[in-house]
Each structure stands twice: as C-alpha cells, then as structure tokens.
C-alpha cells in the first residue's frame, strides 16, 4: 500500500505549495496525489512531475493521505523528500 511509503519516509512535504516547491527544487523522489483532490490543483502538479521526472502515485483520498502524513486534516498531495 502506498500509504506505508508516506509513513516510512524520513521527510515529507505536505500540501500543494510545499510539495510544488520540493519538486521545483529537484529534491522530491515521489509525489502522492489524492484522487478526490481538486483536479485544477492536481493537474499542475502532475504536469510538473512529468517535466521534472518525478514519480506520481495516486492515493484514494485526501483524508487517508492526511492521516498517513500524521495530520488531522486531509492532504491533496504530499512529496517524499530525497535526503
């Protein structure tokens, strides 16, 4: 299950702004995108990831992604940061 990868990651950035910055800086190894997040937001991230060669993994819901990140609210996306 992909949520385990999020939980086991040494460092993650949560949320659209932080994850986008991580990808732009070239330090993201993988980005998790919630299927129920707003497509107007996620399409930009998916395109950016394609451009930067970062793997995109879709997860079922914002609520579960947020929980995997250890936060109380849903998360549209999270990026695993290369150490």
Q: What does this protein look like?
A:
Helix 2 runs parallel beside helix 3 (39-52). By secondary structure, this protein is of the alpha+beta class. The chain is globular and about 30 Å long. It starts with a helix and ends with a strand. A 4-stranded mixed β-sheet has the order 1-4-2-3, with helices on both faces. The protein has 4 helices and 4 strands. It has helices at 2-8, 16-24, 39-52, 62-68; strands spanning 12-14, 28-34, 55-59, 77-81. It has one domain (2-81): Ribosomal protein L30/S12 (60s Ribosomal Protein L30, Chain: A, 2-Layer Sandwich), CATH 3.30.1330.30.
CATH hierarchy class name? Alpha Beta
Q: If strands are numbered along the chain, what order do they take across the biggest sheet?
A: 1-4-2-3
User: Which value, in Å, is the CA radius of gyration?
Assistant: 11 Å
CATH 2nd-level architecture: 2-Layer Sandwich
Instruction: Give the end-to-end Cα distance, rounded to a whole number of Å.
Output: 22 Å
Q: What percent of the residues sit in helical stretches (DSSP H or I)?
A: 40-55%
> CATH topology, anyone?
60s Ribosomal Protein L30, Chain: A
State the order of secondary-structure elements, H for helix, E for strand: HEHEHEHE
From the spread of the alpha carbons, the general shape counts as globular
What is the average of the pLDDT values? 93
Regions with pLDDT < 50 over 5+ consecutive residues?
none
Structural class: alpha+beta
- State the CATH superfamily name: Ribosomal protein L30/S12
Q: Summarize the biggest pleated sheet.
A: 4 strands, mixed
Total helices: the number is: 4
Pfam family, one: Ribosomal_L7Ae
Domain Ribosomal protein eL8/eL30/eS12/Gadd45: 5-82
Protein name: Ribosome-associated protein L7Ae-like protein
InterPro entries: Ribosomal_eL8/eL30/eS12/Gad45
């Amino acid at each position: 299950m992909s949520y385990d990868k999020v939980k086991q990651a040494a460092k993650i950035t949560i949320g659209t702004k932080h994850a986008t910055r991580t990808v732009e800086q070239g330090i993201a190894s993988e980005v998790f995108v919630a299927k129920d997040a707003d497509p107007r937001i996620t399409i930009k991230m998916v395109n950016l990831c394609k451009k930067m060669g970062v793997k995109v993994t879709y997860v079922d819901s914002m609520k579960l992604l947020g929980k995997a990140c250890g936060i109380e609210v849903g998360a549209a996306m999270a990026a695993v940061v290369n150490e």
